[in-house]
Fold this sequence. Notes:
Blueprint: E1 7-9, E2 15-17, H1 21-75, E3 82-89, E4 92-102, E5 108-120, E6 123-134
Antiparallel strand pairs: 1-2, 3-4, 4-5, 5-6
Amino acid sequence: MDRKFYAKMNRSGKAVKAVTLLEALVAATVISVGIISVFRAFTSSLSATRLSQDITSASFLFKDRLWDLQQRCAISSGVPRSDQEKINVRNKEFTANYEIADTEFPALKKVTYTISWEARRDAPYRMEFDAYLPWEQ
């Protein structure tokens, strides 16, 4: 009787193919690598989504603060040339700084907003926005 390493005889004498331990280990390894790859892709996607939400929040925050600055300039002549404030958006603390600089046109000022936050543990993220505002002071 010629026995192969993967063949096994059942009671009726017919050869039944069986899975060897080596084949089972290789299959388990391939499945594990696939599952780990999918999990890493999912966590990377989740991190990218969080960062995208933070960038969107910072953009909206800039737009809101710029509008607020325009309104303060229209109402009062005593607007400081620079300022800093901390703002909580969706349980995340953002720091907004602005600086107003002169341009070659006296009635136009350049406003630079810097918005920063911690994107990951101990990893600050910072965005700068520039805008030009009419200035009648």
